[in-house]
Automatic annotation (TrEMBL):
SUPFAM superfamilies: alpha/beta-Hydrolases. Pfam families: Peptidase_S28 (PF05577). Residues 1-18 form the signal peptide. This is Serine protease K12H4.7. The keyword Membrane does not apply. GO terms for biological process: proteolysis. Transmembrane segments: none annotated. Keywords: Glycoprotein, Hydrolase, Protease, Signal. The keyword Membrane does not apply. It comes from Oppiella nova. The lineage of its organism: Eukaryota, Metazoa, Ecdysozoa, Arthropoda, Chelicerata.
Length: 499
């Protein structure tokens, strides 16, 4: 795999409105490699005619009245189903480029908008995709990258579009998934006068530095046998990591891009967390119907990985089978080798240029985790199958290595405390937000899994992964997913009924 190794945690579901784009280094975008042009070998996706880019002047700093600088923020509209006075369904962009496919396909645009004669609108998040408030992504310039600024962007945008298209008789509903799901919930909490409700899919609402419970859900979702096989592979890998002969063998078998020196701790951490990421990704997006946005590797499911991990004809040792899983993933993402070098990763992430590979979202999202959320998916949970190789300190150190020494643990602690104080964390007080959660989505551990009140409910979707409710429907969808979408429609009816 090329580029971004590690880190990025998150979130998210697919490209756009739900999701992150990278996860421990592997790009989840349809673009394959970070930073490559928007092109894909997905024939269906390429055949679509998508709505044009639209732009409007957004303020750089909403919280400083004398700072009047503006920049161009991008948005997309599809009004095919809209009838005058009907609702406006605003999807908030997340930590990656906003893909207009989300106002054409996906549940919100294709199903809910049709049902309610709504206009579908997608607003790209500042600093992601082509919405670039500053000339580059220097640390100095990234100070305007906060969720508070992004929420006020959406508020200003609602004002702007209401005037531009004479929407004063329309009600707005806000949608998002993963990080943008958090934004949707927070938007409704902070701007209840602007939107009648929010659908916040797979939304983490509690910031936390050490998100070690992520691996608890991964481990549960794999099942005992598969989990045991990975534990066994980790044990065998640990033995190889102890001596130079083992390093050679790791280098060859896991197809590492460069000579592997097992006495460089940061490289070992980076490598093992990348291999864990192979499995984490598969769990997080298990059977999500992401093909429509050109996502790669969607046929690799928990069953596929676990069938390999537990099948002794594939390889006699668990480590051989773990190597096989790595091969399958490399092939699915068209990557020739695993770039495990921590220094390469840091160098890429330090690049402040909009044309760099890190600008696909890696640098920006890492910055947000370092100054707002933490969310570090560490290996600190006892009993998880990947070994103790990526402790939370490893992630905390990355903040300093990438952005500078002032981004230390203390700053992170204060930031996370501020975020939970500002929004409420698990104690979020909000009405008219629906929180769909999937039982095998590792993010649900930081989400809303109990009703917050009679009109803000958790919607449990048994057996589904991250943001499953947002993707187009498929014949293979389990009944509980179809039911969940019907519940979302009923909830939208309630939000939109005139009080
Ligand atoms: C708007 O969405 C509808 C429903 O998915 C689709 O048929 C139509 O082509 C879209 N319009 C544009 C301009 O993309
Ligand atoms: C919307 O604006 C029009 C034109 O300014 C006005 O006639 C109408 O009363 C307004 N409707 C609402 C609900 O404010
Ligand atoms: C491996 O890394 C260690 C520690 O940084 C260093 O002392 C050693 O020379 C390296 N070995 C090789 C073969 O590069
Ligand atoms: C997934 O699909 C790709 C492309 O069609 C194929 O090459 C690969 O073998 C498939 N992998 C699995 C595990 O089914
Ligand atoms: C195990 O792997 C072998 C060889 O790849 C394959 O033929 C067999 O079908 C697999 N068995 C199961 C139960 O998946
Ligand atoms: C979820 O589904 C599994 C398997 O289909 C079933 O065993 C379990 O009871 C279900 N859990 C809930 C809470 O519905
Ligand atoms: C997996 C998970 O945490 N699901 C929760 C989602 O919300 C429902 C309803 O409140 C809970 O019962 C589930 O535990």
């Amino acid at each position: 795999m090329n580029l971004l190794i590690c880190i990025l945690l998150i979130i998210n579901c697919g490209l756009i409105s739900c999701g992150p784009l990278f996860f421990r280094g592997r790009p989840l975008t349809k673009h394959g490699m970070l930073g490559s042009p928007v092109s894909t070998d997905n024939v269906y996706y390429n055949s679509l005619k998508l709505p044009e880019d639209q732009w409007f002047d957004q303020r750089l700093d909403h919280f400083n009245p004398v700072e009047t600088t503006t920049w161009k923020q991008r948005y997309f509209i599809n009004d095919t189903f809209y009838t005058k006075g009907g609702p406006i369904f605003l999807q908030l962009g997340g930590e990656g480029i906003a893909d207009p496919i989300w106002v054409v396909e996906g549940q919100i645009a294709a199903n809910y908008a049709k049902r309610f004669s709504a206009m579908s609108v997608l607003l790209e998040h500042r600093y992601y995709g082509n919405s670039r408030p500053t000339p580059d992504m220097s640390v100095e310039n990234l100070r305007y990258l906060t969720s508070q600024q992004a929420l006020q962007d959406a508020a200003s945008f609602i004002d702007y579009l209401t005037t531009k298209l004479s929407l004063n008789e329309s009600q707005w509903v806000v949608f998002g998934g993963s990080y943008s799901g958090s934004l949707a919930a927070w938007f409704r909490a902070k701007y209840p006068h602007l939107v009648v409700g929010a659908i916040a899919s797979s939304a983490p609402i509690e910031a936390i530095i050490n998100f070690k419970d992520y691996l608890a859900v991964v481990s549960d979702s794999l099942g005992q046998k598969c989990d045991d096989a990975i534990k066994e592979a980790t044990k065998q890998l640990a033995l190889e990591l102890e001596h130079p002969m083992g390093w050679k063998s790791i280098e060859k078998q896991f197809k590492l891009c460069e000579t592997f020196n097992g006495s460089v701790d940061s490289d070992v951490y980076n490598l093992v967390s990348t291999l864990a990421g192979n499995i984490e990704n598969v769990v997080q997006y298990n059977k999500d119907n992401r093909d429509f946005e050109g996502a790669k590797g969607t046929n690799i499911t928990i069953d596929v990985v676990c069938d390999v991990m537990t099948n002794t004809s594939v390889g006699t040792t668990a480590l051989d089978r773990y190597i096989k899983v790595n091969d399958i993933i490399l092939e699915a993402y068209n990557q020739k080798c695993v770039d495990f070098k921590y220094d390469n990763f840091v160098q890429q992430m330090r690049n402040t240029d909009w044309k760099s590979s890190a600008a696909a979202g890696g640098r920006q999202w890492t910055y947000q985790t370092c100054v707002e959320y933490g969310f570090f998916q560490s290996s600190d949970l006892t009993g998880q199958p990947f070994g103790p190789y990526f402790p939370v300190d490893f992630f905390v150190q990355q903040c300093a290595d990438i952005f500078g020494p002032q981004f230390d643990l203390q700053l992170l602690q204060k930031s996370v405390q501020f975020t939970n104080n500002f929004y409420g964390g698990y104690g979020l007080k909000v009405r008219k937000v629906l929180f769909p959660n999937g039982s095998i989505d590792p993010w649900h551990a930081l989400g809303v899994t109990k009703d917050l009140g009679p009109d803000s409910k958790a919607l449990y979707i048994n057996g589904t992964a991250h943001c499953a409710d947002m993707y187009p429907q498929s014949d293979k969808d389990p009944k509980q997913l179809t039911d969940a979408r019907n519940t979302i429609i009923k909830t939208l009816e309630e939000f939109l009924s005139k009080q």
